[in-house]
Every structure is written in C-alpha cells, then in structure tokens.
Design brief:
With 304 residues, this protein is of the alpha+beta class. It has helices spanning 5-10, 22-31, 41-47, 68-72, 181-185, 198-203, 213-228, and strands at 14-20, 85-94, 103-116, 120-131, 134-146, 171-176, 236-243, 252-261, 279-287, 293-303.
Length: 304
Amino acid sequence: MPIDAAGALAAAPRVREIAWDHKDVQLYHLGIGAGRPATDPGELRYTLESRLHVLPSFATVAGGGAPGVIGTLSVPGVDVDLARVLHAGQRLRLHRPAVPVRGRARASSRVVAAYDKGSAAVLVLRTEVTDADGPLWTDEAEVFVRGEGGWGGERGPSGRPSPPPAAPADHVVERAVREDQALLYRLSGDWNPLHADPEFAARAGFERPVLHGLCTYGATLKAVVDTLLDGDVTRVRGYRTRFAGVVYPGETLRVRMWRATGPDGGGPDVGGSDGGGAGEARVVVSVVERGDAPVLDGTVVRYE
C-alpha cells in the first residue's frame, strides 16, 4: 500500500536525548577519511583530542542514533522495505559558530513534507537539536522510497540534476576512499546492511555494498573546509546536497569547487536564510574511476 502521507505528516515529533564526547567525534572523523597523513597538523585537528575541532557534518550522527533515513521508517504511516529506500538529499544549518566537542541535547524529529512522484515517494524528515543554551542545529533528510507513490499527492520540487557552473572550477581535489571506509563509518550509528552485506546490496540492485551517502557528504565538507576555509570549521553556516549516484569503497572522489557570493537562487537553507554577507562554495563530486560519474549534485556550502 502507498505511504499514508497524511498520517506521517500528522504524527507527533519523535523526541530523544542525545549525548556525545570527543571519542564520538574522532570516530566520525576517521569514518569520513580524516587522519591521512596521520601526523599532518591539519589532520590532527580532526583526530587528536587535545586540539580537536568538530566538522559540522558530525551533526548528522551526533548521539549515535539512527540517521534520518532510518528514522523516517519508524514514523507512523511509513511501513516500507528498507531495500527500497535511498537517501535523496541532506540539508544542515548551524545555529552557532561551532558544534561542541562534547554535549548533551534534545533532538526533535518529524516528517515535514511528503511528495508523490508517481512511482515513488519522497519524505522529508526535519530534526531540530537544542541544548540548555538554545538551538544548536537543524538538519533535513530527504528519503526516496521506490514503488510507494501513487496516492495523488503534491509532486514537490524537481529531482533533476542541476548543471555545474560553466566556468572552470576554482579548486579540484581528489580523495581516495578506503576499501573498509563503510565498515568504519557505520560504527557512528548507520547500521544499514546496504553498506556492509553483499547479499543485501544485491537485493537492493547494487553489485556490492556502497558507501554511505552521509560519509561522502562529510568527506566533501572536509575537503571544502580544508581547501577554501583554511581548516576553520567555525566558518561553516550551512550545507546542502542531493545524492546523485553511489560510491563504492576503494574508489576516488573528485571534488570540484567554485567560490560564489550572495543568494544562489536554489531556495532557502534549512530554517531560512542566515542574512547577507555570507560566502558560498558550489561543489560537484564525482567518481574518478567511472568517468566522473556524478555522486553529489546541487551542493552548496555557506560560510562566513
């Protein structure tokens, strides 16, 4: 049966207490490929507890609970086969200059949109995270569910890929993905067997287990911070992407970056605009070994 969109939208928020410390942050950073070379001062910012800085994308795993894609499947009105589920996009807005190295907070999640694509459904799960001092961050996960459309609902935004800027990229970096990267990344809380079990991956239509989209998401933000922001994680204000393709562990990411300023015309960031003056980086990510097969599309990092 199609997803009960009205039931999912009307469901009460799921509220949970989350906590994290330096070990969780370090494990996440290692899971997205930090620490190579191990003694590089730039990498020690991500791996050594005495000088630790938190990459903002850590927010997607803080507290070690199920990621938004998995969390969406537990919402009333949503009862689907995990093998039909794909992560379609991710948005993050920071409400403070930095994610703390250790913290305790309250995370409230609810489905805020349900789109009927005919042969599929797209659900948007928004999570608001606050601590004793107020809002910390807001993130949204867009979840694509094959075979679950057809209830006559709103189609929502187009999922067509957006063309990259016409000008040559300002920076191009390549990042090798370890063969065991998905096995390491999943220790931060995403236990979806698609990323580890060959039989499950085959049932989902893949030749072998694929890398978590949020692992690529974090590795890309790290590349942008290290390349454009001098490693200063506190400058990131927002980050969004659409997942356009898969990465297999052992492949190489090619990250192309363009600097831009002012509104990008792609709609508001999660929670609204941060106001004037912020810079932007447009980013396109592809896989080197498969002829620049697209991986991340419509990617924007907003920074101060």
